[in-house]
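Query structure, 427 tokens:
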């Protein structure tokens, strides 16, 4: 079983069930290993909730980051509007887990998936339980035609038309209609279909910039202003359904401060300005943060105040010291992410010890499938059998490599203890 990778070889189901009660020392767990710090997760949940409340925006966190039911439910309990997903498979998982509101941040143009969603929504309406709202995106008239034809022909009838957001993109970006006239044509096609409901506008600014410098922030702001312009144009054309609330959404984990600044003023939950509007961020990486890409680009690093804490760390045992300045550890590309930067050696636990101490002057220079090359000072006190803790970059690919991750009480504790497992559902 995939979850056994994170467990001592002698563990059985009884041992797993008793983790919360026994709280075994982390030092008794095998390597390679990735852990999630409960103290950091709770801090990040509290920090993001407080930030959104101050900024006056809602949150539909992207569930693809963790694909973990417990974390999704904790995000909902912390005030999230719903959960965002990226693929039909992830959408099906969210519906299986009974997530009340789900946003598919993508076009849904596979007929089988469309019929599945319609049937599940109809069943949920009959049972008055489970997922009761699914919202998808569209950036072309062709996508709308496929949805309309499929849903008009299905025998299942959802309790309401499928909500669709018009996606606006940008030159060189990812998906999304490239011009306002093209986006308005999509909006008109949605509004004309009795099987669909024009639910608002959407976009993703993260593909348009990759740093926090002034030029990148300017690019992001300009794009978001165009997204607000699209929302205003759709409303001015009378395309939104009469009397229904709509959504304006953008915002990954890198520029949600700019999103709140530009789009936040559109929020009007009570419809005092004529129509109820919810502005939703879709940030997902905040829940675990990292020690790499997101630590360098997070808006909280630009605006000051409370910061997120990295909750994910890798652990690997030194298995070879073949040269004075080199250590080989037993974790590689199969275990730790490397797409947004190599792991960062941070600390070491000496062989036979439970105490973690800082490690300085060490750098990962290369990774194989199951080994990483760690350059260390020639006189470094690092021996075969010692366990190194690594900071990781990019939560999404970290979680994707593990069917279960060990939860520890606090990575900064002198003697971390394992309190449970986080199981993932990546298919």
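Result returned for the query:
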């Amino acid at each position: 079983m995939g979850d056994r990778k994170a467990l001592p070889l002698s563990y059985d189901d009884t041992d797993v069930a008793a983790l919360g009660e026994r709280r075994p020392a982390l030092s008794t767990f095998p390597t390679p290993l990735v852990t999630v710090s409960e103290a950091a997760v709770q801090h990040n949940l509290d920090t993001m909730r407080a930030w959104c409340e101050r900024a006056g925006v809602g949150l539909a966190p992207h569930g693809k980051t963790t694909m973990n039911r417990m974390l999704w439910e904790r995000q909902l309990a912390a005030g999230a509007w719903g959960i965002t997903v990226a693929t039909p498979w992830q959408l099906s998982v969210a519906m299986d887990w009974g997530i009340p509101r789900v946003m598919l941040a993508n076009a849904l143009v596979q007929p089988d998936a469309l019929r599945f969603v319609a049937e599940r929504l109809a069943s949920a309406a009959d049972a008055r339980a489970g997922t009761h709202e699914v919202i998808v995106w569209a950036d072309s008239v062709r996508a709308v035609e496929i949805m309309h034809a499929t849903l008009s022909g299905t025998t299942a009838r959802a309790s309401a038309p499928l909500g669709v957001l018009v996606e606006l993109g940008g030159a060189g970006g990812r998906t999304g209609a490239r011009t306002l006239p093209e986006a308005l044509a999509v909006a008109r096609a949605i509004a004309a279909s009795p099987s669909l409901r024009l639910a608002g506008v959407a976009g993703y600014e993260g593909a348009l910039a990759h740093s926090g410098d002034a030029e990148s922030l300017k690019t992001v702001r300009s794009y978001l202003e165009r997204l607000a312009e699209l929302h205003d144009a759709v409303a001015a054309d009378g395309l939104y359904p009469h009397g229904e609330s709509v959504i304006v959404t953008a915002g990954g984990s890198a520029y949600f401060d700019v999103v709140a600044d530009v789009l936040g003023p559109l929020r009007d939950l009570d419809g005092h300005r004529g129509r109820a509007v919810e502005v939703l961020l879709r940030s997902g990486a905040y829940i675990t943060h990292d020690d790499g890409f997101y630590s360098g680009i997070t808006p909280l690093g630009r605006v000051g105040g409370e910061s997120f804490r990295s909750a994910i760390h890798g652990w690997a045992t030194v298995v070879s010291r073949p040269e004075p300045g080199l250590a080989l550890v037993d974790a590689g590309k199969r275990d730790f992410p490397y797409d947004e930067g190599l792991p960062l050696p941070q600390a070491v636990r000496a062989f036979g010890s439970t105490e973690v101490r800082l490690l300085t002057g060490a750098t990962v220079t290369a990774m194989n499938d199951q080994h990483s090359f760690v350059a260390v000072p020639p006189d470094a006190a690092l021996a075969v059998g010692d366990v190194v803790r690594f900071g990781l970059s990019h939560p999404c690919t970290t979680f994707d490599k593990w069917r279960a991750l060990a939860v520890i009480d606090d990575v900064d504790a002198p003697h971390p203890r394992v309190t449970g497992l986080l199981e993932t559902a990546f298919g």
